Amino acid sequence: MAKLNINGRRYNVDVEPDTPLLWAIREHVGLTGTKYGCGVVQCGACSVHLNGNVVRSCSIPVSAIKDGDKITTIEGLSRDSSHPVQKAWAAIDVPQCGYCQSGQIMAAAALLAKKPKPTDKDIDEAMTNICRCGTYHRIRAAVHMAAGNTKAKVAGTDAAPSDKTTV
Length: 167
Ligand code: FES
Ligand code: FES
What we know:
By secondary structure, the chain is an alpha+beta fold. The protein has two domains: 2-76, Ubiquitin-like (UB roll), CATH 3.10.20.30; 84-146, [2Fe-2S]-binding domain (DNA polymerase, domain 1, Orthogonal Bundle), CATH 1.10.150. The protein is 30% helix and 12% strand. The longest helix is centred in the middle third of the chain and has 14 residues, at 101-114.
């Protein structure tokens, strides 16, 4: 039995100790916004926050979660999609297929919590999640928008954000 605090609610989840946190979140708690991609810590689709730090939940057994640990999934990032990162993502129309995007948003939110005004380099170093649709330039622009960096440009790309963006 794993005791998990997810998005401020406590869950007793009947799973084996080596069950990946991702499966507990998706299959047992029923929060399916967090995605399974590679299962081997490469893609970031499974990203959630653990005590405010972004982690890849496919690689963490529930036995590694301590009492008092706080897990946040995309469903818990805000009540109404009002987190600055979510608003910027919507304003710039970042997603294409969307599969990677909850992980991208969680990585961006964790980055901005630690570094409110990231540079392009900071973003590229922190945002290692894979997007098969190649939305990387819009992701970078949206992170700048969420940071309030209105002077940021989408450099070296013809995949500029949509007309809606002001960056
Ligand atoms: S599913 Fe966890 S990193 Fe790819
Ligand atoms: S939007 Fe399709 S994988 Fe990223």
